């Protein structure tokens, strides 16, 4: 599931040649650049990054071997620490005799520096044991100026550039961590907190290498290795709040289950821990629900090199260095790789389909994969209805949950101001349209009735239609679950979705369910829906009434009359006109229908009724129209002979039976 | 006791007997014929399905006695056995089988020892009463006591058809008069011929005085019947005759074979009056086949066998008295030839939407029905209306608390009003509202009340 080197960049590996030429490489976590220094810069300083192709190639004075090299984010300045107490600013774009100009800065107290970091393109952060200073570097004047100083007590410090966060360790065993936000030329202290690193006699102090900072699902976590003699190592995650008043808290504990050298990556909100000796990588997803704060690895896998590397490079070697978020540096081969998740393999790696789908839904830019996987799971009927409901609820509810989260965030912001910000996590949203076009409609296509009825489809898919055809009721249930999830999320279902649900329910023969969702107004009334229901009358007679009810609620009286006439309920149609006092213009239509379909008896009744209406003066058709209408019914419905015969039979009590 | 059976002779009886025996033998000897029989039975079942109704009468021992629709009883032997098995099985459980219903076939059973009656019909209403009427019809020919004793005397396997020979026609017409007569729609009722009150008065007093003057001990009733309706009825002292018995008489006199100017002397048992003994009916059509052709029939009932001559004289007297009153006789002939039924237009204006009605007086069990009116003209049109009334009638017997009912149908509206005094069944046009229907009905009742003596026999004159 992990692929090495989809992106890579080669560099010159470390070398101490006998001719006295030394090559050293440095990786700047903040700018994600690798810097190769030959003879301490005298023979050249080259910096490259995976993100862009810009390669800086300059020469500097050889003023000793640097211990750190840091680039400003615009790549114009470089900070280098050649002595413990000072830092040198290299102006990469200003040269003199092909050598870069330099400027040496230090803290006021001139004490050894613990950290040198670029906060902005021209602000440099220096941290020593007692203070943190923010310097302004004027590139033009080649001067520096202290902007802000704050007193800290630091054993070591790490800087997390994405959030401009400085984490300072102090206290007896360095386990008290003090986060500081360096923003707007200010230091903002956040609440300090104690971490448990499993301290013991053999391991007295909490070390810089055991801590890391990462952004996972829109929250900033401090990750701390906790060692234990008895049990295996854990990776504890402490959540840093965004404001300065809340104390950071212990949130998750990842069970690594091994001891020994390992490297951490955080890729796409997943924590990945590589274990060198067992050559395994553990992938943790803290969103996978867990009964306690402890998480077991979701996937245990091995890194595979990208096929473009031939021969494939060795993995998990001693020469590997890993840097957050996804950088792997092979120091012996001189290649910087990026590590990539291959989510399409999740289907194979995660057995539990529901977990796998949720996992995919949380990945960035994997909507297509998620949707196709969802479809194949539904197709294979790999999910229980309950699980389907959960998945749908996640998809539909995501937008709503975020919305409800945001105001609360704003609410806390008004009370306690956020001092830190980080990359927001956007959960996957699948619109109804996408859902319909890529999941529900394909499902309908392989519904058994569909493959039965559609000859062309039969022809095309003759082979797999046998094993793949789904029962209609299953498809209908899936759709109902989707509809339900929309309702739970208070999203108005689109008309086309409802139409499809109704059609599918009808095809599945789930008439009672259809009846219920109509009767209880689960789906909104609409004329098209009404007509759809009317068309299902043959399958379920009561649906006809539901359809007419909808029309009645929509005050679509004319349509109701039409429907009745269509159903040859001519008398009812006429009664309806009477009751509703409808437009007289409908009456000729009724009479015409009666002339076509009705018995003589009914036509006579209608004729009499017209006469009566006329007599009462509640009939507004003009005389000409009326008489033509009257005539159309026919004057001689009953012949004199018939009437005479009936009269005789009736008075003689003639016996007859039909 | 020997019974005089109208029509039939021993010789014919022997012939049918051997016929049935030979068919019996054939089915026993030749096995292939079993299948043939089965096919035959299937064909019969199919045929039964298509009929509006089918009646079976059989003995308790499964011997078919009567089937209607011009079928030979022999054809339905297997079916008769089935019916018999059903009934006796239920009887062995200490229960009695009443009815079986499939989708649109309703089967009603009636077990009146020693006979079993069964009817299969598409119309479920009043089937039980239908069977009772049939039983009474058979009783009227044989009397109940005879019926019970005949099997004891002649053995279980006795073929009752020998005794009923020639009366199939009567049973048939009884069935059709019950099912098809517009009068019998509501329970057992009779209808009076509409007549001027004074004419009816004259007719009944003439009949009463003539019968009274003859001083025949045992002559109990005199009835004038025409067109299945009663013109007048007189009785001896407090004796009364039940409408069902009257219907048996009407059924008898409507038999066309009797309608000559001859006189008939027919023994008849009226089971509601006394189901063990016989009346002797003197039946004559005094103005039949003469130049007048007045279709009236005079029935005089006596319990004595030797009253023929006495009643003949009474008849002569009545006829001459009636003919002598020429004014009456003209009116009477007119009323009897073409009974002038109640016209709905008599109600008054705005009654157009009332198409047909049937009024039943509960105490006298007399009905008054409306004359035919557009649009209920053809037989199917009238039949549908009738069925509607029949259904609502059985509905109101099933649900005695049901007093008024207004149903808006697609073809017409139905209005039913049942009180202790009367039942009224109305067919209205489809566009009438309940309020208007009720207004019309109130007017109708008022009008009927004012013409009561014309359409009903209010007092039965006694002698």
Question: Can you walk me through this structure?
Answer:
The complex is a heterodimer of chains A (658) and B (463). Chain A is built from 19 helices and 32 strands. Chain A is of the alpha+beta class and 658 residues long. Chain A has a domain of 75 residues. In chain A, the strands form seven sheets. In chain A, strands 29-1-32-31-30 form a five-stranded mixed beta sheet, with no helix packed on it. In chain A, strands 2-3-4-5-6 form a five-stranded antiparallel beta sheet, with no helix packed on it. The longest helix of chain A is centred in the middle third of the chain and has 31 residues. Chain A is elongated and about 140 Å long. About 3% of the residues of chain A have low confidence. By secondary structure, chain B is an alpha+beta fold. Chain B has three domains: 157 residues, Beta-Lactamase, CATH 3.30.450; 149 residues, Dynein light chain 2a, cytoplasmic (Beta-Lactamase, 2-Layer Sandwich); 112 residues, Beta-Lactamase (2-Layer Sandwich), CATH 3.30.450.190. In chain B, 43% of the residues lie in helices and 21% in strands. Chain B has a six-stranded mixed beta sheet, with helices on both faces. A six-stranded mixed beta sheet of chain B has the order 9-10-11-7-8-17, with helices on both faces. A five-stranded antiparallel beta sheet of chain B has the order 2-1-5-4-3, sandwiched between helices. In chain B, strand 1 and strand 2 form a beta hairpin. The radius of gyration of chain B is 24 Å and the shape is globular. Chain B starts with 9 loop residues before the first helix and ends with a strand. The N terminus of chain B is likely disordered. At the A-B interface, helix 15, helix 17 and helix 19 of A face helix 7 and helix 12 of B. Chain B: Keywords: Coiled coil, Membrane, Transmembrane, Transmembrane helix.
């Amino acid at each position: 599931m992990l692929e090495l080197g989809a992106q890579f960049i080669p560099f010159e590996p470390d070398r101490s040649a006998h001719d006295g030429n030394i090559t050293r490489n440095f990786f700047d976590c903040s700018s994600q650049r690798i810097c190769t220094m030959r003879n301490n810069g005298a023979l050249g300083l080259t910096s490259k990054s995976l993100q862009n192709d810009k390669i800086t190639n300059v020469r500097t004075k050889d003023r000793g071997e640097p211990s750190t090299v840091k680039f400003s984010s615009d790549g114009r300045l470089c900070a280098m620490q050649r002595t413990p107490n000072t830092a040198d600013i290299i102006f990469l774009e200003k040269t003199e005799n092909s050598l870069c100009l330099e400027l040496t800065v230090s803290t006021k107290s001139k004490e050894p520096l613990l950290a040198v970091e670029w906060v902005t393109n021209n602000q440099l952060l220096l941290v020593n044991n007692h203070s943190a200073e923010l310097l302004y570097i004027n590139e033009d004047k080649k001067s520096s100026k202290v902007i802000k100083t704050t007193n800290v007590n630091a054993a070591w410090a790490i800087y997390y550039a994405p959030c401009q966060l400085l984490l300072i360790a102090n206290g007896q065993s360095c386990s008290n961590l003090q986060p500081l936000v360096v923003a707007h030329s200010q230091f903002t202290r956040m609440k300090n907190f104690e971490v448990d690193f499993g301290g013991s006699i053999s391991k007295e102090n909490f070390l810089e290498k055991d801590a890391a900072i990462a952004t996972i699902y829109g929250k900033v976590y401090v990750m701390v290795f906790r060692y234990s003699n008895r049990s295996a190592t854990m990776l504890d995650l402490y959540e840093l709040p965004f404001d300065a008043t809340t104390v950071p808290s212990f949130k998750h504990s990842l069970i690594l289950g091994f001891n020994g050298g390992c490297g951490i990556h955080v890729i796409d909100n997943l924590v990945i821990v590589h274990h060198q000796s067992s050559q395994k990588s553990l992938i943790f997803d803290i969103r996978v629900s867990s009964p306690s704060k402890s998480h077991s690895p979701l996937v245990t896998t091995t890194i595979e090199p990208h096929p473009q590397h031939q021969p494939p490079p060795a993995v998990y070697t001693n020469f590997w260095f890993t840097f957050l978020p996804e950088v792997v540096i092979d120091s012996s081969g001189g290649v910087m790789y990026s590590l990539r998740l291959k989510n399409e393999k999740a289907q194979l790696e995660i057995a539990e389909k529901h977990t796998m789908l949720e996992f995919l839904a949380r990945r960035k830019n994997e909507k297509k994969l998620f949707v196709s996987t969802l479809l194949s799971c539904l197709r294979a009927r790999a999910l229980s209805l309950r699980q389907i409901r959960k998945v749908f609820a996640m998809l539909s509810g995501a937008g709503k949950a975020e919305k409800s989260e945001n105001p609360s965030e704003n609410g806390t912001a008004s009370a306690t101001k956020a001092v830190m910000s980080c990359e927001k996590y956007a959960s996957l949203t699948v619109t109804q349209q996408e859902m319909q076009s890529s999941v529900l409609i394909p499902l309908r296509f392989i519904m058994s009735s569909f493959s039965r009825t559609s000859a062309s489809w039969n022809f095309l898919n003759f082979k797999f239609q046998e094993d793949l055809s789904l029962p209609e009721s299953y498809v209908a249930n899936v759709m109902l679950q989707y509809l339900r999830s929309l309702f739970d999320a208070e999203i108005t279902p689109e008309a086309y979705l409802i139409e499809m649900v109704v059609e599918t329910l009808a095809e599945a023969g789930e008439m009672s369910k259809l009846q219920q969702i109509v009767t209880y107004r689960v789906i909104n009334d609409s004329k098209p829906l009404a007509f759809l229901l009317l068309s299902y009358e043959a399958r379920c007679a009561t649906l006809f009434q539901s359809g007419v009810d909808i029309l009645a609620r929509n005050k679509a009286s004319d349509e109701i009359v039409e429907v009745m006439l269509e159903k040859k309920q001519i008398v009812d149609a006429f009664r309806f006109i009477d009751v509703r006092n409808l437009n007289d213009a409908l009456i000729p239509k009724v009479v015409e229908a009666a002339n076509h379909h009705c018995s003589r008896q009914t036509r006579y009744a209608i004729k009499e009724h017209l006469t009566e209406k006329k007599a009462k003066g509640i009939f507004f058709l003009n005389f000409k129209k009326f008489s033509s209408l009257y005539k159309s019914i026919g004057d001689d419905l009953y012949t004199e002979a018939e009437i005479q015969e009936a009269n005789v039979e009736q008075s003689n009590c003639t016996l007859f039976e039909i | 006791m020997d019974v005089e059976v109208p029509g039939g002779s021993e010789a014919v009886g022997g012939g049918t007997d051997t016929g049935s025996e030979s068919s019996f033998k054939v089915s026993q000897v030749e096995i292939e014929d079993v299948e043939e029989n089965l096919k035959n039975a299937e064909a019969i079942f199919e045929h039964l399905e298509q009929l509006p109704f089918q009646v079976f009468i059989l003995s308790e021992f499964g011997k078919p006695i009567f089937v209607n629709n011009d079928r030979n009883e022999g054809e339905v032997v297997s079916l008769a056995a089935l019916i018999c098995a059903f009934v006796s099985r239920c009887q062995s459980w200490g229960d009695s089988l009443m009815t079986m219903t499939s989708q649109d076939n309703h089967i009603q059973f009636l077990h009146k020892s020693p006979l079993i009656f069964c009817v299969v019909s598409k119309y479920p209403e009043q089937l039980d009463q239908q069977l009772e009427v049939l039983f009474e019809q058979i009783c009227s020919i044989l009397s109940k006591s005879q019926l019970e004793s005949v099997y004891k005397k002649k053995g279980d396997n006795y073929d009752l058809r020998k005794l009923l020979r020639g009366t199939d026609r009567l049973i048939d017409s009884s069935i059709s008069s019950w099912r098809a007569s517009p009068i019998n729609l509501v329970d057992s009722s009779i209808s009076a011929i509409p007549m001027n009150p004074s004419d009816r008065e004259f007719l009944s007093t003439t009949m009463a005085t003539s019968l009274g003057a003859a001083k025949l001990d045992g002559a109990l009733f005199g009835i004038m019947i025409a067109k299945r309706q009663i013109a007048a009825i007189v009785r001896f002292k407090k004796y009364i005759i039940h409408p069902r018995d009257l219907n048996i008489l009407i059924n008898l006199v409507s038999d066309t074979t009797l309608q000559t100017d001859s006189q008939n002397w027919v023994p008849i048992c009226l089971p509601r009056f006394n189901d063990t003994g016989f009346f002797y009916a003197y039946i004559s059509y005094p103005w039949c086949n003469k130049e007048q052709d007045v279709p009236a029939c005079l029935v005089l009932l006596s319990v004595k066998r030797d009253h023929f001559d006495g009643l003949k004289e009474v008849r002569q007297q009545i006829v001459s008295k009636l003919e002598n009153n020429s004014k009456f006789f003209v009116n009477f002939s007119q009323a009897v030839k073409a009974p002038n039924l109640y016209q709905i237009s008599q109600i008054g204006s705005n009654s157009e939407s009332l198409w047909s009605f049937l009024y039943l007086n509960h105490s006298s069990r007399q009905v008054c029905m409306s004359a035919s009116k557009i649009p209920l003209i053809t037989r199917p049109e009238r039949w549908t209306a009738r069925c509607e009334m029949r259904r609502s009638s059985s509905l109101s017997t099933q649900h005695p608390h049901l007093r008024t009912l207004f149903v808006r149908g697609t073809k017409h509206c139905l209005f039913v009003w049942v009180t202790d005094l009367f039942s009224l069944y109305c067919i209205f046009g489809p566009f009438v509202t309940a309020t208007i229907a009720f207004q019309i009905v109130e007017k109708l009742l008022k009008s009927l009340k004012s013409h009561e003596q014309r359409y009903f026999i209010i007092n039965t004159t006694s002698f």
